[in-house]
Amino acid sequence: xxxxxxxxVSTPLVEGPITGHCDERFEQVRxxxxxxxxxxxxxxxxxxxxxxxxxxxDLWGGxxxxxxxxxxxxxxxxxxxxxxxxxxxxxxxxxxxxxLDLDALVGDYWPEFAVNGxxxxxxxxxxxxxxxxxxxxxxxxxxxxxDWDHMVEAIAAAEPWWDPGTRNGYHMLTFGWTVGELVRRVxxxxxxxxxxxxxxxxxxxxxxxxxxxxxEHRAAPVFQPKPNLEExxxxxxxxxxxxxxxxxxxxxxxxxxxxxSPSVRRAEIGGAGGLTNGRGLARFYTPLATxxxxxxxxxxxxxxxxxxxxTDQDATLLLPTRFSLGxxxxxDNRRRVDGDRDSVVLGRSAFGHVGAGGxxxxxxxxxxxxxxxAMNNMGPGILLNSRGQAxxxxxxxxxxxxx
Length: 403
Known about the structure:
alpha+beta
């Protein structure tokens, strides 16, 4: 597709719950964003889109919390697994600079990890969810998710659920400590510090892994969806019915992870604890959609985009998944005959990550498109629900019309 002209037209929006700007060519995105509030149960949210590095959508609206405070331009919220994209980018940046070899053994950087059947695990396996430690079998005490050393020591000592590299299974929370500890050991900085200094600041992205206390007042609480027993996924049923299952341990044995706890938000939880908004997600992905900017090489972008693993049944999520090295690729399960149909439908070159409840950020290098959506009222499903997918579909429809 062609990039939009340098002088784009932005229209201020003041009607209804929506505030911000929307290029007139992306009016369909504004309409779907508003429909999310009217018909799809949106509470407070923001969406941001850039094409060719230029802002075309920057909208926010609704309420921030139970008191009815408005969702402001700078409101941020926990975006759960969208944080994994930020964590993965840190590893890719170190690899791009020659400090981290993606095909090296993890033990070369983290000797304590290379035990109990994980001796042949590679950095690549850490990034593509095939390393085999998606959950810990030992019960984690409440609050230890805030203790980085405790978590990485527990993961290092753990026996894998499968021989590393032989299959893949989504690492819900542990991804932040497996990949994050590599970042810490190679860079000498904590994951949150490295991301802030080397990526978020250069990209001008309001995105935090470990929220500074002075920004706590901007954080919106998240609201859990009410369970619907009639529409419960197979994954959720396994969680309920099989107490010792990988699925239950991955989801519930979290060491007290609570997105509404200020102390948890301050902790550097690279698998699910990042805080940002639609603008922060899109600004993070904009350089990745447009060649890497001055931070990443084109080769690094290719490594982020290329499919690394694909399976008919993810060992954790129990449905077909596709991942590059640290990022989700398009997963279209809508036509499955049996099993869950949870999906995230993106362009063929797109890579990014969804977060629990439906937030999403991604880059699409083919279309020079970056997208971010964050909200505080969590929706149903394992991957992307109707609110986020409607926005993504609208963006692609508008992009196609520019050709």
